[in-house]
Design brief:
There is one protein chain. With 278 residues, the protein is α/β, with parallel strands linked by helices. It has a single domain (2-277), classed as TIM Barrel. It is built from 10 helices and 10 strands. The strands form 2 sheets. An 8-stranded parallel sheet has the order 8-7-4-3-2-1-10-9. Strands 5-6 form a two-stranded antiparallel ribbon.
Length: 278
């Protein structure tokens, strides 16, 4: 079992490089930074977490810049996007950012992706909410083409480009693992087609763990080994009795949530989590 943490990195939270060093010193495997380029002030889309939307959703640093700071401060800690909103990103530029981070970090990138929940946010980037999963699919497939081909091209409904040269290629081969978020009816179709893992969120009223056998069955149906798409549980409950149940449930990575708070408040939490994973 591997252990990581997820935190919105902000100007008022513990700095990404400082957090990364503290995690590596305490034996954690990975750090994960989410992404929101902005939040529309209309606030029409309800937050899945319920209640008022926390400030960090519109205050977070760019995940790739923050992860590079974390990577430069560490040697072993894996660097995850949790999640990268590829529906709001140009795939050619994003492929370049992922490959660059993977090269400069020595092959430590975990590329977590998702479709997002804020319809107005993605509309500001030109993506229609109802089309977001089709957009995500094509952008991911286009990025894979860029990462794995000397001359890449892609012709789809939402992504189209003729042959291009785009280096560097990622250090990890054939590319960093693409770990797919979400817990919808068609999530496992995406994991089976182009995913290297599944990363659901544990919520107070929603436990995704009973669906792991369904994921394994879908992978087998696609001719894949279930081990080719391990499960990373976001916002895992930091209790030993819960964590001990995860391997049997098919989970290989538990990711604890951290608030966007200063160092003096974060370090005691990390010390408590570290005792759980010893």
């Amino acid at each position: 079992m591997d252990y990581g943490v997820v935190m919105f990195p902000t100007e008022y939270a513990m700095a990404p490089d400082d957090l990364a060093r503290a995690l590596e010193e305490r034996g954690f495997e990975s750090v994960w930074f989410p992404e929101h380029t902005h939040i529309p002030a209309s606030r029409r889309s309800p937050w899945p977490g319920g209640g008022d939307l926390p400030r960090e959703y519109w205050s977070s640093y760019d995940p790739f810049v923050a992860l590079m700071a974390a990577g430069a401060a560490t040697k072993r800690l894996k660097l995850g996007t949790g999640i990268c909103l590829v529906i709001e990103r140009d795939p050619i530029v994003t492929a370049k950012e992922v490959a660059t981070l993977d090269r400069l970090s020595g092959g430590r990138v975990l590329f977590g992706i998702g479709g997002g929940w804020n319809a107005e946010e993605m509309a500001n980037h030109g993506t229609d909410f109802k089309a977001r999963w089709r957009v995500l699919r094509e952008r991911v497939l286009a990025m894979k083409a860029i990462w794995t081909n000397k001359e890449a091209s892609f012709q789809g409904e939402h992504v189209r480009f003729d042959k291009i040269w785009a280096d560097p290629k990622p250090l990890q081969q054939p590319h960093p693992p693409v770990i797919i978020g979400g817990d919808g009816a068609t999530t496992f179709d995406r994991v089976a087609e182009f995913g290297d893992g599944w990363m659901p969120i544990l919520r107070p009223n929603q436990n995704p763990l009973p669906r792991v056998p369904e994921l394994h069955a879908r992978l087998k149906q696609a001719g894949r080994d279930p081990k080719s798409a391990p499960v990373s549980l976001f916002f895992a409950t930091p209790k030993r009795e819960f964590l001990e149940t995860l391997p049997a449930a098919g989970v290989s990575r538990a990711i604890f949530g951290l608030p966007s708070e200063p160092r003096d408040k974060i370090l005691p939490r990390l010390d408590a989590y570290a005792k759980l994973i010893e």
